[in-house]
Amino acid sequence: MTSILEKIGKAIDHSRHSSDLVITEDHQLSIRKLFISGTMDNESLELWGEVVDAYAEDLRIIFVDESRDVIHPREGISGQKHYITITCNELPGILRLFTFEGWRTFLLQDNKLCEYKYIYGLFITEEFQTLCWSVLPWKEMLPVQTSCNNTAKKTSVTKSIIKCYSTAFLPPDAIAPWILETSGKTADEALTLWKSIGCRELLKCFANELFSAEKMMVGLAGKPPRKIAFGDETLALPSFDIIQEAAKWIFLEGNETELKHTFLSSELAREWPADVDFCEGIMLRLPSALESARLLYKAHIRSGSKDTMKSLGDLRKTLTEDTQKIIQQSRELSSTLWKDMALVISVLVVRYSLDAAKSAGLQKVYALVFCGIAIYIVISYGMSVYINRQTISLLERVRTTWRTKLYGFLDEQDYHELASRPVKDAMGSYRRVERMTSAVVILLVIILLTAAGREFWSISTFIKFIHTWTNGIL
């Protein structure tokens, strides 16, 4: 069974026999509109009658005779002019085209090229794909990809680096629609037209200036600077592959677009042949100019890498110093703890040695000494921990501040591997030491306070006091 799309395609093809045929296809708001007018014979009227008789929910078809009355095509008179209007709703991110004329109109609408992901056409026989969209034969009224998100509109890179002196001669907003990714074995008319327009659009991207007065001109800001007639883009079609390669290298690969553009335009201008149009001379100059521009860019990267290596060296030195400071703080914390332990042990040894020598009357003095040492240890250790934490916090704030100032060339993963991880490991080691020393300090304080308490009460006396106090309450 013949689908309505096949019937529309046959009717359009047969209507092209008309000598006064007019076809326009464009979109208005969210509706796709095809308009056809021309003198039709009986066969054309019959084919359009089959189209009108077929039902399609998404299509609205109006057939009008020479008197501007709406009629059925089979009621039309052969040899007279008739008018057909077909409308359908657009789908988000999907473009459906009835005619080759609609395809041409779309390709010339630079501001709409990146609004779609999939393009379906009745006239397309071989599918192909660019970096922006896939172009496919239109075989079903509602394609498999019934909807998709529109591509977010981005600021034009080309128009920010190319000076334009006429609105009639502008570079494209985006490069991706004109870079071929895959194609069929044979090139149909749709692909041929795309290549022709794409060749012209990409060539404009290699210039530094664009003029349009009596004829289209391009300016190359090299040594010497050049002003060259643009010429016929079809002459450059044999070099379309290298043109795509150059455009992709400048605008889509890596950063520093303006620098790469300057290198290429300078190389093109350096040995441009005299009295040769831009589209004609590009075949001679672009391969060698692109190779030279790439070499210049590599040399620029190498010279820039010296500064990068110096910055990485400074980063390594700074991180080594910060890590050593954190490790030193761990050592100082441990050293302070051992000094405090030696003090506690010395006092306890002296106290109980005298006790063993049967000295008496010094209980209250030793109790005060034990309490004083406990307070000293708590204050000394607390201040050491506080100072260390403030120092570490300051180092972290400084490192965060200089992250974007000095080391912005490093991505997050590289910075994490080179800087964040070593510092975090050192911080983890410090925190483990701090936890262990804190536990020991708490233990020492408890021992000192217990010893101070025993100077006033023995365990049996303390229990007897508690028992007496409890009986008094009861």
Order of helices and strands: HEEHEEEHEEEHEEHEEEHHHHHH
Main sheet overview = 5 strands, mixed
Q: What is the distance, rounded to the nearest whole angstrom, between the alpha carbons of the first and last residues?
A: 107 Å
Structural class: alpha+beta
Instruction: Give the overall form.
Output: elongated
Characterize the structure shown.
By secondary structure, the protein is α+β, with helices and mostly antiparallel strands. The protein has a domain of 167 residues. It contains eleven helices and 13 strands. It has a five-stranded mixed beta sheet with strand order 5-6-8-7-10, with helices on one face. A four-stranded antiparallel beta sheet has the order 1-2-4-3. Strands 9-11-12-13 form a four-stranded mixed beta sheet. β12 and β13 form a beta hairpin. α8 runs antiparallel to α9. The radius of gyration is 42 Å and the shape is elongated. The termini are far apart.
At a glance:
The protein has 474 residues and is of the alpha+beta class. The chain contains eleven helices and 13 strands. The longest helix is centred in the last third of the chain and has 79 residues, at 278-356.
